């Protein structure tokens, strides 16, 4: 039992948004509230502009009597901003509340320049994107940010990130909200920060595998990280550390120095950066994971062989992950995601994991590609702001 009643305006909105009850009659039935009480609560949601009557005609009421008008979430009353930071590159967009990208920009933004410069620049990008999308800054209800490091969700700060020098413990929320205000002249907005693999997993699971109750995404780019979505929610562990696979020690890596300062990490032998170093040592010009991606796309044989080898290293670790979590989908994303890497993953995975844990497992590559982090970040903001427990305080703040 929770202390909160399950029949407030926020709960009705949740029922409509999820499609579980979309008429007044169905809401009465789902909540046990009277017709008059449902009407009063819906009125508040209509006045806030969060709910509208559906475009389709009336449907039969579950309580009998007159056919009822369907209700739907009105996604026109606000927009969301989202950004996804890579080590040397970033992507940002304006999203509708239902996750449609309305304007998008990507360009060079170097994590090592530090949070003050990077987040300041993002504020400028956001202002330009809003103009491009034809939306006012006042319509923005929140900002979602994906970063390549472990995040403490409570504080929105990164915790000892190996590839984000200068960001440890920095007030990302405050700075990004401030940069938004600086460039648009509007008041502060809520900012949510999460790890990139978590948000990619969240975006992909909701979009392509909504019925999968145990979903794992592994991002292999500059680093290696995993996002785990269980029963529709990101599983973060007790302090945001879940899924940080890149620094598991592997036997093949004893000689390899990792960016975290240790020797023998998985990321030091099987990440995009590690493959680039091995290619460079063999005389193939490659300096980063994205260079490796380009080589793979052009069918470069040495890049393919090294990517497959990296896939085997990661697959060995994933055998344990799959045995522990028994996921329905294991998705490979990031610079190395492609046939050679996937082949390597499968080789080791099916060899090392119990047949039972892989019998119904789908091993796939990303569906949303480079937009997965943005879609996930946008969804995180919307689910946070329209969660039943937050709807009530937001309605009161609006005087509704
Ligand atoms: Zn490491």
Give your account of this protein's structure.
The chain has 14 helices and 14 strands. With 400 residues, it is α/β, with parallel strands linked by helices. The strands form 4 sheets. Strands 5-4-3-6-9 form a 5-stranded mixed sheet, with helices on both faces. Strands 12-11-10-13-14 form a 5-stranded mixed sheet. The chain has a two-stranded antiparallel ribbon with strand order 1-2. The chain folds into 3 domains: 9-76, Orthogonal Bundle (Arc Repressor Mutant, subunit A); 78-198 and 374-397, ATPase, nucleotide binding domain (Nucleotidyltransferase, domain 5), CATH 3.30.420.40; 201-369, 2-Layer Sandwich (Nucleotidyltransferase, domain 5). Bound molecules: zinc ion. The site of zinc ion has 6 residues, from loops.
Short description:
This protein is 42% helix and 18% strand.
What is the topology?
Blueprint: H1 9-17, H2 24-31, H3 35-48, E1 51-53, E2 71-73, E3 79-85, E4 89-96, E5 101-108, H4 115-133, E6 140-147, E7 151-152, E8 157-158, H5 172-184, E9 191-195, H6 196-208, E10 214-220, E11 224-230, E12 233-234, H7 266-270, H8 272-281, H9 289-297, H10 301-325, E13 329-333, H11 339-352, H12 355-358, E14 362-365, H13 372-385, H14 388-397
The chain binds zinc ion.
Structural class: alpha/beta
The total strand number stands at 14
Domain count, please report it: 3
CATH topology of the largest domain: Nucleotidyltransferase, domain 5
Order of helices and strands: HHHEEEEEHEEEHEHEEEHHHHEHHEHH
- The assembly state of the depicted protein chains is single chain
What is the straight-line distance between the termini?
A: 28 Å
How many helices in DSSP terms? 14
Classify the beta-strand content into a percent band.
Answer: 15-25%
């Amino acid at each position: 039992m929770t202390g909160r009643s399950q029949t407030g305006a926020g709960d009705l909105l949740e029922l409509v948004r999820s499609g579980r009850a979309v008429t007044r009659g169905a809401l009465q039935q789902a909540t046990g509230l009277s017709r008059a009480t449902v009407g009063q609560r819906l009125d508040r949601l209509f006045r806030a502009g969060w709910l509208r009557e559906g475009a389709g005609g009336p449907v039969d009421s579950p309580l009998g009597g007159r056919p009822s008008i369907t209700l739907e979430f009105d996604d026109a009353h606000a927009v969301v901003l989202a950004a996804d930071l890579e080590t040397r590159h970033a992507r940002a967009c304006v999203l509708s509340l239902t996750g449609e990208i309305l304007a998008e920009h990507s360009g060079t933004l170097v994590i090592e320049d530090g949070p003050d410069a990077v987040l300041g620049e993002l504020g400028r990008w956001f202002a330009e994107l809003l103009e491009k999308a034809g939306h006012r800054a006042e319509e923005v209800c929140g900002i979602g940010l994906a970063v390549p490091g472990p995040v403490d969700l409570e504080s929105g700060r990164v915790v000892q990130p190996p590839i984000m020098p200068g960001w440890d413990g920095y007030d990302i929320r405050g700075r990004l909200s401030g940069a938004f205000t600086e460039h648009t002249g509007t008041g502060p907005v809520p900012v949510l920060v999460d790890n990139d693999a978590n948000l990619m997993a969240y975006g992909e699971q909701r979009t392509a595998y909504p019925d999968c109750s145990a979903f794992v995404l592994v991002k292999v780019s500059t680093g290696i990280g995993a996002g785990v979505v269980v029963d529709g929610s990101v599983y973060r562990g007790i302090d945001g550390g879940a899924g940080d696979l890149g620094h598991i020690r592997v036997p093949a890596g004893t000689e390899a120095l990792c960016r975290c300062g240790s020797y023998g990490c998985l990321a030091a032998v099987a990440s995009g950066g590690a493959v680039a170093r091995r290619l460079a040592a063999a005389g193939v010009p490659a300096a980063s994971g994205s260079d490796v991606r380009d080589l793979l796309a052009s069918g470069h044989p040495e890049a393919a062989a090294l990517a497959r080898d990296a896939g085997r290293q990661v697959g060995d670790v994933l055998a344990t992950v799959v045995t522990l979590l028994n996921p329905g989908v294991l998705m490979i994303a990031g610079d190395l995601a492609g046939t050679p890497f996937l082949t390597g993953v499968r080789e080791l995975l099916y060899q090392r994991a119990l047949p039972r844990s892989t019998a119904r497992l789908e091993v796939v590559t990303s569906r949303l590609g480079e937009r997965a982090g943005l879609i996930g970040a946008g969804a995180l903001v919307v689910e946070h702001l329209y969660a039943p427990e937050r709807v009530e305080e937001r309605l009161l703040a609006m005087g509704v």
